Amino acid sequence: MPAGTLVTIEGLDGAGKTTLAAALAQELRQRGRDVLLLREPGGVPVSERIRELVKDPRAEVAPRTEALLYAAARAQLVSEVLTPALESGRLVLLDRFLDSSLAYQGAGRGLGVQQIRDINLFATGGLTPDRTLLLLISPQAGRARQDDRGQEPDRLEREDGDFFAAVADAYDALAAQEPRRIRVIDARREPAAVLDQALAALADLIPPG
User: Fold this and answer.
1) Suppose 107 and one of 22, 112, 170, 177 were both cysteines; which one would form an S-S bond, judging by CB atoms 3.0 to 4.6 Å apart?
2) Three-state DSSP state, 130
3) How many Å apart are CA 186 and CA 188, to the nearest integer?
């Protein structure tokens, strides 16, 4: 079994995952923790190239192709970086992981949560997070935050309200099914308050040092 700790951060687009991941990494490093911060899809060259493809608004990607591309990017990240880092005892913070595919492709694309779970368990070799922080925000609030950024939406961010409602419902269902692993964070609050919630949700796993 890996000696390290894998913490993943999940939620809808606009929930503040990247902001929390960076703040959490900084806080834990200040406490003397050896933290590796990664994102999905991406983190290694092959996976970053897949990221460019799946997010390209000009690309026409079929739902099953999309699911397999995400799983392929994840498989490469696990093999190249995650497994070695965890085996060496590191704390890994990962912006998105398996639950994103369950929610976005399994529910949002209607491919089936269990089918997507099976694909990704194969891709990851069964690797599961020790703790998942789920940033809870409504699809409407998440979309408003994205609009405020003034950035061109990527291919998935262009989906309609029904798609993101299905994703949000799937995240809620996952949190209800695995309350010990998935801890819900109120993403509507200010970044400092969100960080405090995250630290509290990790206190039993990563005691203050």
Assistant:
1) 170
2) coil
3) 6
Amino acid identity of residue 176, one-letter, is A
Residues 104/154, Cβ–Cβ less than 8 Å: no
- State pTM to two decimals: 0.94
Domain boundaries of the chain, sorted by first residue: 5-40+83-118+126-190
> Of 4, 206, 25, which Cα lies nearest the Cα of 85?
4
For residue 208, what is the DSSP state? -
- Bridge partners of 160? none
CATH topology of domain 5-40+83-118+126-190: Rossmann fold (3.40.50)
Nearest to 156 by CA among 9, 13, 10, 3: 13
Question: Using CA of residue 128, residue 133, residue 138, residue 139, what is the dihedral sign?
Answer: negative
55, 13 in Cβ contact below 8 A?
no
